[in-house]
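Q: LysR family transcriptional regulator, please. Structure only.
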Amino acid sequence: MYRPKTTLEQWRILQAVVDHGGYAHAAEKLNKSQSSLNHAVAKLQSQLGVQLLEVRGRKAYLTEAGEVMLRRSRHLTQNVQDLESLAANIQQHWEPEITLAVDLAFPRSLLYPSLQQFLPECRGSRLKIIDTVITGTEEAITQGWADLVISHHVPKGHLGEVIAQVNFLLVCHPEHPLSQTSGPIDPNELSQHLQLVIADTSQSPDEKQGWLKSEARWTVSQFHTAVDLLLQGIGFCWLPEHVVQPHLADGLLKQLDLDGSSFRRLVSYLVKPRPDNIGPGSQLLYDLILSNRQVIRQDDNTATTGNNP
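A: Structure for LysR family transcriptional regulator:
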């Protein structure tokens, strides 16, 4: 097994000498004698067989080799600091990893402000954001494999906070036969055409949500794949308004008027699958998402940001 010749303390002293412009100031900052710092750096250079500093007048300057070694040493000492900080966080039950499951239909732009605020406070915790769909999202709650879940359905026995509402529109290509229909489309006519659906991420999908009466169905894993197919004139699909709005505005897609359902509205909930066993990092992220949530007021149908329902 390899045994290091040098110590972290030696590298820390070298960094201090450089950062504070010499041995005298570094000794003051580290609360050590100047002679001990001189001895530590001299021994470091001797052990490496490389000159790191050269003294000119009363100041010490890095050699070319010293600049390279110093830069690499900063990574070393920072990694040790991060490792010890992680150990302290684990000791305090701060999670080393947080899993956030997000239903694919939830607008990611609503999540980004919370993530930006979470980053400087996360204490080095790794964050896993996993896309889920329908039953797969529910399983993240019922099976408890995620720390937090953004879902459009709260399973029995769980609670969720409303954080947004998402409209789904029925769309197809402007030249698709369904686009040529005048007036609301009869659902029976709709069932005669190819429907694009988004794959359920569950291992045991339960097709119980959405309009799925078409005998001909193509299944894709992402909304953007469905949009690409629609732009080629293939099929029709229910898609989130925020996903298709740019294409509707450009006239590349057309919203269909279905008799009995011009659009579908889903409520987005933030759920703690295990509320009695949530870690401090997950709780912080939960609070940040709530503070940035968007809620639709039923009286004027406008979005508001904040905690007022």
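A: Brief note, in case it's useful. The first helix runs from residue 8 to 19.
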